[in-house]
Amino acid sequence: MKQFFDINVFPWGRADVACTAELEFGRDGISVCMTAEESDILATVTEQNGEVYKDSCLEFFFSPCPEESRAYFNFEANPLGTLYTGFSAGGTRASSEPVEHEGVIDTRPHIDRQNGKWSVSYDIPYDFIKKYAPGFNENDLKYITGNFYKCADSKKTPHYAVWSPIDVKAVPEPDFHRPEYFGKIFIK
Q1: Which tens digits make up the pLDDT trace of 67-118?
Q2: Which domains does the chain have, with CATH numbers?
Q3: 116 near 35, Cβ under 8 Å?
């Protein structure tokens, strides 16, 4: 069953963007589809595991075993479908490292510049998750924790949107690597 999420909280200043995410736990993996409406779409990074956060970017971070560990994945994609995949074994930005996803996770991007819309979809195989988080078992877990984000660091007016709120008093500068602010996402 698909779950829908509005990425409409702007902890570090409002922007004229509208973003959503769809998530579905399937038989073999997690299907992700994220959509953004924004003027002046920025899409320049073409190197896999490159600095896609500088472009218009949609991101999905999640902790696969939240009751066991703060370890998390981060999947960051630009409108070209260029994907950065990271894993943080320690649950912090400092311990986050890029991981190889070539041939395992393929993106399906769509850009409609005329109407200022773009989207990216991809599937995260459970076997890929288990490679980094052996305790993950999609049949036993009731939920994961995570957050959905929208950013564009290199745009004329950078912006940062989140699904699950981040306390701006505790985190005064934009920082998505904050598993303590991940919300519960139930495996249905």
Answers
A1: 999 999 999 999 999 999 999 999 999 999 999 999 999 999 999 999 999 9
A2: 3-186 (2.60.40.1190)
A3: no
Helix locations, the chain, DSSP H? 126-132
Contacts of 122 (CB under 8 A, 6+ apart): 31, 32, 75, 77, 83, 105, 106, 107, 108
**pLDDT confidence band for 46 (50 / 70 / 90):** very high
The per-residue DSSP string of 33-85 comes to EEEEE-SS------STTS-GGGSSEEEEEEESSTTT---EEEEEE-TT--EEE
**Calpha distance 179→63 (Å, rounded):** 7
Query: Distance between CA atoms of 99 and 35, rounded to whole angstroms?
Result: 24
pTM score: 0.97
From residue 52, give the alpha-carbon distance in Å to each of 29, 61, 71, 79, 147.
24, 15, 22, 9, 17
Asked if 62 and 44 count as a contact pair (C-beta separation under 8 A), the reply is no
Q: Which two tokens stand for residue 26?
A: 């399937």
In 3D space, the residue among 6, 125, 112 whose CA is nearest the CA of residue 56 turns out to be 112
